[in-house]
Design a protein that fits this description.
The complex is a heterodimer. Chain A is an alpha+beta fold. Chain A has 4 helices and 4 strands. In chain A, a hairpin with a 2-residue loop joins strand 3 and strand 4. The radius of gyration of chain A is 15 Å and the shape is globular. Helices cover 37% and strands 24% of the residues of chain B. The chains are: A alpha+beta, B alpha/beta. The structure holds S-adenosylmethionine (SAM). Chain A: Its main location: cytoplasm.
């Protein structure tokens, strides 16, 4: 699971959960896969991403020196930051770990890079 | 669009995962025919629900991987694995998420949505329990072949149970400019579905149709009106 994907995941499908976002991420095993930097791609995706979850991902992988807590203005003009975002969002692949609902503590395991977000019948 | 390689998937995988068939290829053909529209749309997030072997979303990922994040969901863990390996085999990237429909995704994000649903008319019992984690007892009897494959085709009344649930959620799934390609069977009553979509403030057209032995298939193309 890439950290760009993490940005789109929520536990709001659980009965009673209001926001369910960002999920609490724990990484047991990850892989860094170098991919070609494409500034336009990062720039176009940014408006769809939630900065609070970008920052919480950066905290988990200890990249908070690179990624500020608050989204800076005119980010596309900052090539260095764009490259760091590219690395955070597209090069780090979580193979094993878990996601936790911030409101209920429900844990969703990540196995072989695939988060299991299925709920039980009595949870929805 | 290139048709993805599937030679890495064997009869062993197809014991648990829906094997690409005429319906799969019709959806691929519809995307291919609508590439100009898709290019103009410049999608940033594509999602296939119920990706099975992953051939459809892999073909899309190969075509749009420079500009779009491609995600796939399935309730069947074997399908999630197969989808990832199909993307790898074809040197592209698709992210698998095991979940019910798009329920784990933030709202109004998806620019291109694809679904070849379980569309066969069956009794509702056959559908029961497909949507949730197996209870400890049934998991014990093994999360078996049968259960996985039944959930790839069993559609309950009119073959519409799963599709109807998705249609109710569509407004929360599609981005403002989003488009949805949905595969249907004549028995699913496509005209009724189009009317229903109109009442939900969508526009739907029969974008492609094809007769195959024993079935008549449609692709609906759905956008916000
Ligand atoms: C007809 S198969 C299509 C597979 C593949 N997309 C194709 O076209 O070859 C339907 C797929 O939907 C999955 N599925 C069924 N119900 C689902 C649900 N509620 N949420 C997500 N996936 C589901 C099944 O496991 C199966 O892989």
């Amino acid at each position: 699971m890439k950290l760009s994907t993490y940005n789109f995941l929520t536990s709001m499908a659980i009965k009673g959960v209001k926001v369910g976002y960002p999920l609490k991420l724990t990484i047991n095993k990850k892989e860094v896969v170098e991919t070609e930097f494409n500034a336009t791609f990062v720039e176009r995706l940014l408006p769809k991403l939630d900065w609070s979850a970008i920052y919480s991902a950066a905290q988990v992988v200890e990249l908070t020196d690179d990624i500020p807590a608050v989204q800076p203005e005119n980010i596309a003009e900052n090539e260095q930051l764009m490259q760091k975002l590219h690395h955070l969002l597209f090069e780090i692949d979580v193979l094993d770990g878990q996601l936790e609902c911030p409101e209920t503590g429900r844990v969703f395991p990540i196995t072989d890079g695939i988060p299991n977000m299925l709920l039980n019948e009595d949870e929805v | 669009m290139e048709t993805p390689y599937t030679d890495h998937l064997t009869s062993h995988e197809y014991e648990h995962v829906y094997e690409p068939a005429e319906d799969t290829f019709l959806l691929l053909d519809a995307l291919e025919a609508d590439l100009t529209f898709l290019d103009n749309l410049q999608p940033r997030l594509c999602l296939e629900i119920g990706s099975g072997s992953g051939v459809i979303i892999t073909a899309l990922a190969k075509r749009f991987s420079h500009g779009a994040l491609c995600l796939a969901t399935d309730i069947n863990e074997h399908a999630c694995n197969a989808t990832k390996s199909t993307a790898n085999r074809n040197a592209t990237k698709v992210e698998s998420i095991r979940c019910n429909l798009a329920s784990a995704l933030r709202t109004r994000s998806v620019d291109v949505l694809l679904f070849n649903p379980p569309y066969v008319v069956t009794s509702d019992e056959e559908l029961h329990n497909q949507l949730f984690e197996a209870s400890p007892e049934s998991r014990h009897i093994n999360m078996s072949t049968q259960r996985n494959l039944v959930s790839s085709w069993a559609g309950g009344k009119d073959g519409r149970r799963i599709t109807d649930i998705l249609l109710q959620q569509l407004n929360d799934i599609l981005s403002p400019q989003g488009v949805f390609y949905l595969l249907l069977l004549r028995e699913n009553k496509p005209d009724e579905i189009i009317d229903k979509l109109v009442s939900l403030n969508f526009k739907a057209v029969k974008y492609m149709e094809r007769r195959i032995p024993g079935e008549y298939l449609y692709i609906l193309k759905i956008t916000r009106s």
